[in-house]
Here is the input.
Amino acid sequence: MSAVTRPIPSVVPRRKSSKKALRLVLRYVLLFSVLIFAVFPFVWTFAIAITDKRAGTSIYDFPASLFPKAVTLNNFIEVYRTFELGKYVWNSISITALTVIGTLIVSALAAYPLARFRFPGKHIIFAIIVATLVLPGETTFIVNTLTLKKMGLLGTHLGVVIPTIAGAFGIFLMRQAFLSVPTALLEAARLDGAGEMTILTRIMLPLTKPSLAALGIFTLVGTWNAYFWPMLVLSAAPDKAPLSVAVLRLKGQFNYDPFNIAAGSLIMMLPVLLVFLAAQRYFMKGMEGAVK
Amino acid sequence: MTRAQRSLTPRTRSSFSWRDTLMSYAFLAPALILLTLFTFYPLAYGSYLGFTEYGGARFGQGLPPKWIGIENFRTLFADPLFLTSLGNSVKYLVVVPVLQLASLAVAVLVNKNLPGMTFFRAAYYVPVVTSISLAAVMWEWVYNKDGTLNWVLGALHLLPNGAVGWLNGEATAFWAVMLVTFWRGFGYYMVLYLAGLQGIPEELEEAAVLDGASAWQRFWQITVPMMKPTILLCSLLSTIAALRVLEEVLVLTNGGPLNSTYTALMYVYSKAFQGFNFDYGLASAAGLVVAVVALALSVANFRLFRESDGEGT
Here is the structure.
């Protein structure tokens, strides 16, 4: 092809530019198709949540239910009051905050020697941590529930948090980040007599903020979303359940009021969505730094 | 002598300092203790439980597990529900190649400096930051007989047999649940692939363009080889997640209708915690069977990628 087109230079750029324009249009058509698939359920849920149900509308009345005529915030107030959502909001915050802080501390501490020290058993420990990625965890939730029961942590927030904070993902993410810090910097600090803890907190962590943020946000999202594990640990303590577990209970309680369910769902969605949107650019940067 | 000396020299050089060793283990201690207690111990003890009778009345009376050999596995493979659930979990692997190809394609799609790209990336990630319980609420409305899916398909004249309750039909529920897995997953893998794509040096791409390589050629000869570690990681994560699918099923169908979405981990969970079973022994045995399948698939995944990659990673 190129051998044929090369001798006729005047044709090539024109054909290329029209091809380019077509490609651009195609790209945006695809981008918008994926967009609809990704966000449509939210758009509908949002429309339902702000619909004034006193008008007697059905959520299945299309396309009217997508474009509510009478708009209200009453559904939010009603669901918050009748269901005491505040309690579950606090539970979610407590569990998520503890998990994020725990994960960052444990991961950074473990990653530092793996990135920067030579010590006997390093390769074995490395292999052990890699192994957690592929090792079967099918019976883990059974045994961990029994272990928590023995420790008296079943039905507590700590019981939800502690088994989840040490993980290969966090440790490797931080190790990769630490590896990218120039060795000369550390040697200079050591010559100045800085202890390892000082090097970690004063040099390593400030220089790897994007990775810390990425890990923090990944953990935050995962914990806020988590349904199965908190449901299991807190099954005997329904008052300590996070929103993710409470929302499904809400579905049972307000079975015939989809407007309230939609409003409650959005209350649950909002904080994590705001955090994500605010940190989104930083987050993509963090991932870039983490994988390099 | 000289030989021995030579081999000794690097050894003395590489001898470990006490200080570093002590420091390293102090720093690693929290992670190692937690991993031992909540990852490795459950693996060992759970495997042991698989060969015991434990749970129910026995557990209530505080009696220890009783060794019964392979009795649990005999029970399992004689239980049609277990065989169905294992089959469904293996069938769920269909989602892996579809999800990975789509995610990589979407990553390539948004990996261009064009207006709106930041917005698209963020929007695609929104399903990932959505809880499964919220997804269940929304998708049940979408899949409802009066829901949006039927409305759209009806408008396109794609419903010859009329409206379908997607989660209520034996033939459709499985795929409906899988679509939710796909919906929640593609943004996550897109970000992982995107990070990998941005790690590819631009000069490489530019040189290929100068050499006259087409977009297709660049994709297969630069993007894919450079992305191999990411692709391996993503398909591994995706394979294990698909085999262990539980949450989607639990919140959308609870295994029904007629066990058509009853997966292997649903069986494990149900035997251990649902109803009045509390049969930790049998549940652990079922978990072990899934574990063996998952392990085999992980090894196969590694092999597959190593064989297709001449240089190795």
Remarks:
- Residues 1-11, 286-292 of chain A have pLDDT under 50 and may be disordered.
